[in-house]
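Could someone model zinc ion with this protein?
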Amino acid sequence: MDLKPVVDAINNLSTRLDEYQKETRAELNLLKNSIVPPSPTFKIHQSNIPEPLNLEAEQQPLTKRSSFGNRETTAVSPAPKAGKSQYPDRIILTTYPGNSKVNPIPLNWGAEDAAARGPIVASRHPQSLPLRNAIGAHGGAYSIYRALAVAMGQLDANHKPNLVNTEPVFHVPPNKSWFDPMKIVSMDPWGHLVQEAFGDKLKEGLDLRPTIALTKAHMQLAEIESMVKDGSLKIDGKIVLDKKGQLMVTKGAVEPVWYLPGIAKRFGVDEISLRRALFEDTGGMYPELITRGDLKVFLPPIGGLSIYIFGPPAYISDPTKKLTVRVHDECNGSDVFGSDICTCRPYLIYGIAECVRQAQEGGVGLIVYFRKEGRALGEVTKYLVYNARKRAEGGDTAANYFLRTENVAGVKDMRFQATMPDVLHWLGIQKIDRMISMSNMKYDAIVGSGISILERVEIPPEMLPPDSQVEIDAKIASGYFSATSAKSAEPPNLENIKGRTWDDINH
Ligand SMILES: Nc1nc2c(ncn2[C@@H]2O[C@H](COP(=O)(O)OP(=O)(O)OP(=O)(O)O)[C@@H](O)[C@H]2O)c(=O)[nH]1
Ligand SMILES: [Zn+2]
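Reply:
Sure, complex below.
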């Protein structure tokens, strides 16, 4: 028997093993030389951190030829300073609760007054860092842009917002839901009252940031103008201001603040599994999720929500006043750009018009707009799904509508409406007279959270855009509410409900 090939293979393996060991040793040496073993205070000295790449040479202002004509354009950003000069202090790791620098301000989620609850401190500014009691960063996904601004030297790393005159323009007072630690778990009920409730801490120099802002404005939409023109919406001078359909609105923006034990309970998982999944699926971005079990609040890097109120905001929590609500999830393609493959913008507009009508009749209307693009799967996934739908053998049918999304994303929906009602409880809503939605998921979440819905209102058939029949029939077949289809004797054959083909789209 010829053993030569076996011997060669063993030699080969042994050489590769040697090389691997050498590389590993080199890497270990590199690590040893560059990282100081954690001292009792877990400080890393600047001098021990490997020098950052010398970016100066690469960061001369860029001059490039615009593709539109021969105009020379110069990048607006100044040549940035090297990153480390933005942070003259030593890095302080707060990975472990035993670190002597770590002394978080206690948070009592659900406490009955602001002082007892405590402010949310997420800042790593030198003065706030030891008192930090939340994982993550303010601003949701925008924290990354803030980091870029700091890295480029355009924003002082220790900038604190000047909050003078930023207070809410209308009152959302505490209600009993605020004092049940499990009722509001995805936002900070005191988030709009930071300036008032924690003014003393702000004066002391803590970097506290409101996570809710409340303001007012006029708004104008082409469809509302048409409704005023055709007489279906009346000018009243208070809510519909003029023949252009200008609307008076009070509105607010809310950033997510998660109370992890409450989020875990809401989704029926244990807190440890939740923390592990959040750690893993953010690429290990927040190690404190694992190591800092003492920190119960997480500011996730996701979009928040907006509220639009038509009529007096105080009526929202008054059960003697009628309330119309539409909860809407973001669909940029339709909401902003008018794509006709789904019902989103027309349903949103119908919701606004119904809210306005409710307010004109002496009640109040509320739109809640969540940044959960493409059922929280994102727009890239959504457009991949559109392609798969249009290219499918047998065409784009209602029968396979959800299957196409599942094929790409693994699930048909990741909005998980369980935390959606938090904002309704924050506002003090006890019942909804008219709910402008067909979604069983939204309905079940709201009613399951203790808010009753007296009437469900579907989108009028005449408002359905040309290519959206597939979506609406697939939704109704999967459990969405429809008074119209409940009346019809025969359910439609979903194989026969077809959307446009690519050929139709091209012409
Ligand atoms: N992934 C995916 N998302 C879609 C598709 N079509 C629409 N969407 C998204 O579905 C969501 C629709 O949200 P809403 O307008 O609040 O409607 P809904 O929850 O279905 O129910 P209603 O309240 O009855 O309108 C938005 O986030 C859209 O971007 C699709 O084909 N695939
Ligand atoms: Zn849509």
